[in-house]
């Protein structure tokens, strides 16, 4: 077991390598020659059990811990610290590689397309979470036709009054989420917030390799590093691209993904994820929870 000083030092080192504080505490809470239940990790990390459950599963996705089969209760074991640091370094290197590839592809696409609305800087980098959230909200507020967005579990969605206002004005809003979002109270509440609006639709796919939001096929927010504080790579990088030609390309990519998606309420039913406590359903879109409070499926994992 680690001393308090060495534990603090390891947490600082993990954070410097891209891990969020919450995940670092969960990882350190599992450093013993045995497997831990979610409730044990939550107690060690000083986090709510539901939050610890989400953070542990992000650690699993990044290869920093593994789930131990058997016993009827989910248990998790951390990989050794040196191995964890090595995997974080590999993750950061892969993020940098993907960022460079994305920038090269975007610059190449822009040079080959003309944009009649080229009165603003076509590409700018947003490096703060408030810049990304504020920029998306501003673009949505000016939407006249359609907003599409793609998000995975690591994107923390924000409930905007702006979205409700534009839906009421007749703007269509479509979202594609990955399957792990079905386990997230936050993502289920986000979908439930707008589920009763005629112009809102959400679908689920098994895997996402890219995330972006697109407004009126012209303004694209391409997320290179996800703006969430408790996941590896917690710094922020997103490109805002104002270009109708490239926006059309992103829209085509969204449509291909959309065709493979399953309606959110059907995915919930198939996954047997409990609706939030006290939820009602929309008769137009049965099965989508609308209440803000939630008990989450993670209650099945002790």
Short recap of the structure:
With 302 residues, the protein is α+β, with helices and mostly antiparallel strands.
Explain what you see.
Strands 4-10-9-8-5-6-7-11 form an 8-stranded mixed β-sheet, sandwiched between helices. It folds into 2 domains: 4-84, Arc Repressor Mutant, subunit A; 113-300, Endonuclease, Chain A. Helix 2 packs across helix 3, helix 2 crosses helix 4 and helix 3 (38-45) packs across helix 4. The chain is 43% helix and 17% strand. The model is unreliable at 113-118, 227-233 and 275-302 (pLDDT under 50). The protein has helices at residues 4-16, 21-29, 38-45, 49-61, 81-111, 129-141, 161-168, 185-194, 244-259, 264-271, and strands at 36-37, 65-68, 75-78, 123-126, 146-151, 172-178, 200-205, 212-215, 219-225, 237-242, 262-263. The chain is α+β, with helices and mostly antiparallel strands and 302 residues long. The protein is built from 10 helices and 11 strands.
């Amino acid at each position: 077991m680690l001393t308090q000083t060495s534990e603090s030092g390891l947490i600082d080192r993990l954070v410097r390598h891209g891990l969020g504080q919450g995940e670092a505490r969960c990882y350190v809470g599992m450093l013993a020659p045995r497997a831990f239940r979610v409730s044990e990790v939550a107690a060690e990390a000083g986090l709510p059990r539901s939050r610890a459950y989400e953070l542990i599963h992000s650690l699993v996705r990044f290869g920093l811990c593994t789930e131990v089969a058997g016993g009827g209760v989910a248990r998790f074991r951390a990989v050794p610290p040196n191995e964890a640091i090595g995997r974080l370094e590999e993750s950061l290197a892969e993020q940098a590689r993907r960022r460079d590839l994305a920038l090269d592809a975007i610059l190449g696409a822009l040079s080959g397309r003309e944009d009649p609305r080229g009165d603003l800087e076509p590409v700018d980098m947003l490096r703060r979470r408030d810049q990304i959230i504020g920029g998306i909200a501003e673009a949505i507020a000016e939407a006249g036709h359609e907003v599409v967005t793609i998000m995975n579990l690591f994107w923390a969605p924000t409930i905007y009054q702006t979205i409700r206002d534009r839906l009421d004005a007749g703007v269509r809003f479509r979202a594609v989420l990955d399957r792990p979002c079905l386990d997230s109270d936050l993502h289920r509440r986000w979908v439930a917030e707008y589920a009763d609006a005629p112009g809102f639709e959400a679908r689920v796919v098994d895997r996402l390799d890219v995330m972006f939001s697109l407004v009126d096929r012209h303004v694209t927010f391409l997320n290179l590093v996800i703006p969430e504080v408790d996941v590896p790579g917690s710094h922020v990088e997103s490109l805002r691209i104002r270009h109708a030609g490239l926006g059309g390309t992103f829209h085509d990519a969204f449509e291909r993904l959309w065709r493979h998606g399953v309606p959110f309420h059907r995915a919930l039913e198939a996954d047997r994820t409990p609706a939030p406590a006290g939820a009602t359903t929309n008769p137009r879109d049965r099965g989508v929870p609308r209440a803000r409070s939630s008990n989450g499926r993670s209650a099945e994992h002790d």
